[in-house]
Amino acid sequence: MNKLIVSLDGLVIKEVALTKDRTRLGRRPHNDIVIDNLAVSGEHAVLQQSGEGFVIEDLNSTNGTYINGKAIRRQALVHGDVVEIGKYRLRFVAAEATDYETTVTLRQAPATRAGETLPALAAPVQAQVVGALSASVRVLNGSAAGREVQLSKVVTTLGKPGVQVAAITKRPGGYSLTHIEGAARPRLNGEIVWGEPVHLSSGDLIELAGTQMQFILEG
């Protein structure tokens, strides 16, 4: 089921299933999703089902509607997009997310061979190919140091749920890193990653949930 995960200051407040053709967001109580914040207009934005996806439209709000850090008037939502309204973040989760998302949980997994552990991976599913680029992340510390995870899906989420989660998204123009969940934010080459997706270059160093990784681009 399509849904929005609503968070404030890195903490998840609630999840809202998108069951209607039109879902209104705003400060007034008659909205489907009420966001009680003075930076939010009475009727701020609307989500409308379009085919198998959703389109979000700003309703001439005072402070605007942002997707992944960029102001929009009307835009189709892609799985993993983060809608910013005031101080609130609403992450769009598509019903078909497992068709193109891999989750990498940064914790010890059962040993596959004596003395060897790997990050836990979601079951493999069919990948969607976006462009000719391919990439991976190499774990640099911990018991899984030296292991590589292929970024074969459109979206790969990394981290510890409830603690710190980020996503690497594969688009025609390359790969980008986005903070998803947690009060602590990931670092890219020592710099904190804020709301807007940050473009990744081969060799970039990512720090997330106590794990250091290197982004490797091929092709």
Automatic annotation (TrEMBL):
Pfam families: FHA. Gene3D superfamilies: 2.60.200.20. Residues 23-72 form the FHA domain. It comes from the Bacteria. InterPro entries: Cell_Proc_Reg/RNA_Proc, FHA_dom, SMAD_FHA_dom_sf. SMART domains: FHA. CDD domains: FHA. This is FHA domain-containing protein. It comes from Aquariibacter lacus.
